[in-house]
């Protein structure tokens, strides 16, 4: 793992798993997504990981026209690194998932490193009424969808978005095998250091939120990549804060946000993304870590720079 003198925070602002019924604080409209992203950057997030939602009913949207309603404001009002998802949602085609990143050519984009069962249907049992008709079926449908990220799809993204447009990647690894997939593309020269490995724990279908698993993922990544990679890690749901603390103690970076957890503490809903950023910033500072700002992270990840995007 490549050690850094400072630790950076990624904030995943809205995602595609949680639905509007689950929390009144989940940003849904372009105005809400923009507001919460800007507030998260002001609270200390150097990277903003962004999805879009249909402004009418909050369902995940791949449409560049929706992204365009909040990206320029974030770009103008913050120095944060904009990270556009290419994961989108498990219900989208690969072409839909890539549309916004290909249009706006961000400094950073997420890239999932393998096809998995990505199940989040359990939340459907917690609610009797729904704000929108689509929500329950969408959650239950995750039991019968494969989140497809084939080798050919990964290569296409690396070439079209990476080689052609200069975007670098947050390589999302949901299991140990995804590290070996990443190593395959490193060996072929399609991924060049320094690269960011985002290890994700606690998604049903991926590696579980056990701390031994984080230690093991780091051991494997160290063996495969040496100091060519920058580690970041998080766990979904109630394990969020303990896992980012563990990642920081290992010398890695951290990610929080309402995409990953709707809570700020056990049994207590987070009221904003900024609240989670402020909490993890306090944890890092209590551990003696300094926070890295956006320009410092640009240097760490060898990004092309804010002026080179098409936002």
Topology:
Blueprint: E1 9-12, H1 30-43, E2 47-50, E3 52-53, E4 60-61, H2 64-67, H3 71-77, E5 81-84, H4 94-104, E6 108-112, E7 116-117, H5 134-141, E8 146-147, H6 151-163, E9 168-173, H7 176-187, E10 195-201, H8 211-225, E11 229-235, H9 240-249, E12 253-256, E13 263-265, E14 268-269, H10 273-286, H11 294-301
Parallel strand pairs: 1-2, 1-12, 2-5, 5-6, 6-9, 9-10, 10-11, 11-12
Antiparallel strand pairs: 3-4, 7-8, 13-14
Protein described:
- The chain has 311 residues and is α/β, with parallel strands linked by helices.
- It has a single domain (9-308), classed as TIM Barrel (Alpha-Beta Barrel), CATH 3.20.20.70.
- The protein contains eleven helices and 14 strands.
- It has an eight-stranded parallel barrel with strand order 1-2-5-6-9-10-11-12, surrounded by eight helices. The protein has a two-stranded antiparallel sheet with strand order 3-4. It has a two-stranded antiparallel sheet with strand order 7-8.
- Helix 1 runs parallel beside helix 10 and helix 7 (176-187) packs parallel to helix 8 (211-225).
- The longest helix has 15 residues, at 211-225.
- The radius of gyration is 18 Å and the shape is globular.
- The model has no long low-confidence stretch (mean pLDDT 97).
- InterPro entries: Aldolase_TIM (IPR013785), BKACE (IPR008567).
- This is 3-keto-5-aminohexanoate cleavage protein.
- GO terms for molecular function: 3-keto-5-aminohexanoate cleavage activity; metal ion binding.
